[in-house]
Amino acid sequence: MTSAAATRTTSTRGWFFNQPPGLAVLFFTQMWEIFSYYGMRTLLVYYMTKQLLFSQQHASMVYGVYVATFYFTPILGGVISDRWLGRKRAVMIGAAIMSFGHFLMASESLLYFALAAIAIGNGLFLPSLPSQIDDLYAKDDPRRGSAYNFYYVGINVGGLLAPLVCGTLGELYGWHWGFGAAGVGMLLGLAIYTLGARWLPPERPRTQAAAKAIDAPRMPREAMRQRILALVAIGLCVMVFRGAYEQSGNTIALWADVGLDRNAGSFLIPMTWFQALNPLLVIFLTPLLVMMWTKQARNGREPSPAKKMSLGAFGVALAFAMLAFVDAQSGGHANWMWLALFFVLFTVGELFILPIGLGVFARLAPGGYAATTIAAWYFASFGGNLLAGVLGTLWSAMGHAAFFGVMAAVASLAGVLLRSLDSTVLRAEAANGNGRPADQRSEEQAQTG
């Protein structure tokens, strides 16, 4: 890094929460990318079942495969970015491809090509953007630890706006208006990133990752075995959990349309608005949970990572069990407030499991293989979304109450399995010399499933 670049990217204080201007560039770029992704995703199942007249089973499978692919492509995209394109070029190319994919959604016959384009573009974009945050700060900069908190807010602001803007346009004025708004959002993100490029850190040398892997101290074989065992086991549990968790944008969205009384007085709540509850709750609940865990840590009572994740899975199971009871009692026409309560329980459970799991993967990453280990976390999301698509096909094959009961059982199974892994994870972390403070940053990024 040149002296001028170092001054600009690591020392500048500006209007954005007294952070380097480069963080604002990354914040708003990510915000608009999430806006475009969730804006399209909010409409996707409705579009396939109402406009394209897909069967529910077909729509659920397409949805599950698409979201799974969205999480799989970053594994390949990260390698391409690190070895050939560089982070800045990968972000720009990925954003352009995603924008193109969103606009392709205007043609009904190009649905699969559009979804493929969005997933491919995301593969280049997703691993390349947040990896630039650390380079905005000097190693001893006290602002560094809070940077991911601000970045994480950007993710959820985009997720909050998406169903309110794209969902409303698609539902009230036509599906293509909603998809078009998603494409415009992605173009805004690309414009912000391009115009703000001068505030971003320069590219890392291509040989840096390889040098780190070579210089990393060799780990005892038993310690490595314990780490890999813990990571594989957690990954499999998270796959099972996501089978139920990812129903929020699939069968839960369908239930909001056909099984819910959405009248609030004389106002009919648009069905897509309920998808905004999850990111809104994440924004408000995250600080409260962090405060609670900090207080527990000071008193020596903070649960271990596997116990937290188990509690999160049981929390999501409770949310689905509640819907099973409500749907059975209401005769398939429940008050909309029950879905709002579902998202409260659902989001609390999510915050107990997904950020914590990503943090475990970061802490247990072998030296020189951090990116590969994080890619494995995305692979767990990939497998879980495929499972969610398969499970979603049961929606039409059984009653809604029974389906929610099955999802509660799936989440509970994940909770039981995670609880049984507590000693395995603790041994792996003990062999790792406990977690590094820097690893907490990965927990603050998560959602993203």
From TrEMBL:
Chain segments annotated as transmembrane: 21-40, 60-80, 89-105, 111-129, 150-170, 176-196, 228-245, 265-290, 311-330, 336-362, 374-395, 401-418
Primary localization class, coarse: membrane
Cytoplasm listed as a keyword: no
Keyword set, alphabetical order: Cell membrane, Membrane, Peptide transport, Protein transport, Transmembrane, Transmembrane helix, Transport
Domain Major facilitator superfamily (MFS) profile: 22-423
Subcellular location(s) per record: Cell membrane; Membrane
PROSITE patterns attached to this UniProt entry: MFS, PTR2_1, PTR2_2
InterPro entries assigned to the protein according to its UniProt record, in alphabetical order: Dipep/tripep_permease (IPR005279), MFS_dom (IPR020846), MFS_trans_sf (IPR036259), MFS_Transporters (IPR050171), POT_fam (IPR000109), PTR2_symporter_CS (IPR018456)
One Pfam family it belongs to: PTR2
Membrane topology: Multi-pass membrane protein
NCBIfam families assigned to the protein according to its UniProt record, in alphabetical order: yjdL_sub1_fam
Family assignment from sequence similarity: Belongs to the major facilitator superfamily. Proton-dependent oligopeptide transporter (POT/PTR) (TC 2.A.17) family.
This protein's name: Peptide MFS transporter
